Amino acid sequence: MKHWARTAAILTGLVLSVPVWAAQGSLLRAENLRAAPAANAAIVVELAQGTAVDVVGRQGGWMKVRSGTKTGWVRLLSVRPGRAGERGVGLGEVAGLVARRPDASRVVSVAGVRGLSEESLKTAKFNVRQLEKLDSYAVSAEAARAFAAEQGLHARQVAQLPAPSTPNGGPAWGTEP
Amino acid sequence: MKARIFLLLLAAVLSSGARAYDLGDFLGIKPPKNGTERPATAGEPAPKPLNLDALTTLLAARAPGEEARVGRQVAGDLLGAAPLVPDPRLQAYVNRVGRWVALQSGDNAVKWRFGVLDTPDINAFSAPGGYVFITLGLYRMLDNEAELAGVLGHEIAHVTQHDHMKILQQSTLISALGQAMGRQIKGSDQVAQNLLGNGAEILARKLDKDAEFRADRLGMVYAARAGYDPWGLPLVLQKLAALPANDSRMALLFKTHPSPAERLDALSQAIGSRFDQLGGPDLASRFYRIK
């Protein structure tokens, strides 16, 4: 059973996982469609910002996309779900370019279920029993390390990411070689 | 420049001999009597003699004991609004993943606790002192352990960066200074009241945008340091971006955070090609799926 689980884990790692929102996406910025998921891979074609793509897979920080008859790889963070101009929380909306239009057909109905609103947080009553329950689930550093080791996770050094110097300004990697 | 104004104000406070509120009153915290009593919700707090110790605590950027007490209050209130999902295996799983990611933050003095809240809302929260929560609504959108690690990493970063403490300290300080200088800073009482009337309400406050972007960057870094596929957090943000913006389950999230698209854009500018060589498993096979 355990062996089976491990094999499955390895297989899952090899197979390109397709994001849940999959299928339709569009490019947040002009991008080079590359033959392989690497910055130095051959350029298949240059794609303009807003180009509609079909997402067919992912590998690391790259997404495999299809645009017309061409298939190749672009950076994961250059793709947004949905078509350009389509409603959603797209980048156009961030830039104030696209007006918000309600689309009743896409609203997920959660009628009757009370969510966590500002009001419910304001009026919430301290729940000590739940807090004790929460405490009871806490695990030690040792237990966490053992849990990581079960699947071969090892701590590694990764430098902090610097804050972008010009937020929302300039091309991120559109001009990268 | 800001620091200079601050020092001038501080000097004014310390020399004025005027009255200010006690820090504990501002935070709605009483000295622990039996450890389980809910501190009084702020009514009209009565002015007290200037408490220099409290002011010092307040000015000290880090006060672990204070953080733990504030966090306990906030977490207890939040759990009053939404209890834990009654699934011990789920809670144990999230604590193991969360603790492993938190170990990578280097903040080992923190007592970390993680919980899945029983609400269809899509959100995640943290409170000072190591409390981290993810809602059932958001958990159900996840597909693997690396995505969970990324989401928890973002919240862990708010704790290690003391983001909520900073809001509390700022508002308390503004109010205390206003009182101490015998000058009414307009609306300062209301500010303090709004912030601290109920501990959990701090979670409905918007943090600085830069604090959110930084938590996204750190969340990815923590997950990467833990050995996971570092792209979990952005993949979750892409899923959120794919949902209709007016989905009521995300009302609070959108009120308190920049939009997912804006966060993705900020991440992309910070990362560039930096993570190109970083692999790592997403551990979809081990991900605890809720029936």
Structural notes for this entry:
The complex is a heterodimer of chains A (177) and B (291). Chain A is of the alpha+beta class and 177 residues long. Chain A has a domain at 18-118: SH3 type barrels (Roll), CATH 2.30.30.40. Chain A is built from five helices and seven strands, in the order αβββββββαααα. A five-stranded antiparallel β-sheet of chain A has the order 6-5-4-1-7, with no helix packed on it. The model of chain B is unreliable at 1-44 and 183-196 (pLDDT under 50). A three-stranded mixed β-sheet of chain B has the order 3-5-4. Chain B has a two-stranded antiparallel ribbon with strand order 1-2. In chain B, helix 5 crosses helix 7 and helix 8 runs antiparallel to helix 9 (188-196). Chain B has two domains: 2-67 and 164-204, no CATH class; 84-162 and 209-271, no CATH class. Chain B is mostly helical and 291 residues long. Chain B is built from 13 helices and five strands. Chain B starts with a helix and ends in a 20-residue tail after the last helix.
**Mean pLDDT over all positions of chain B:** 77
Biggest sheet features of chain B: 3 strands, mixed
User: Whole-number radius of gyration of chain B?
Assistant: 20 Å
Oligomer: heterodimer
Q: How many structural units, i.e. domains of chain B?
A: 2
The number of helical segments of chain B is: 13
Give helix and strand order of chain A, one letter per element, not per position: HEEEEEEEHHHH
CATH class bucket of the domain at 18-118 in chain A: Mainly Beta
Uncertain runs of chain B are 1-44, 183-196
Summing up helix and strand content along with how strands pair, one would put the structural category of chain A as alpha+beta
Choose one word for the global shape of chain B.
globular
Mean pLDDT across residues of chain A:
74
* CATH homologous superfamily grouping of the domain at 18-118 in chain A: SH3 Domains
Largest sheet of chain A: 5 strands, antiparallel
Structural class of chain B: mainly alpha
Number of helices of chain A: 5
What is the end-to-end distance of chain A? 47 Å
Helix share, percent of chain A = 10-25%
Tell me which protein chains meet in the greatest interface and how many residues each side has: A-B, 87 and 107 residues
- How much of the sequence lies in strands of chain B comes to 5-15%
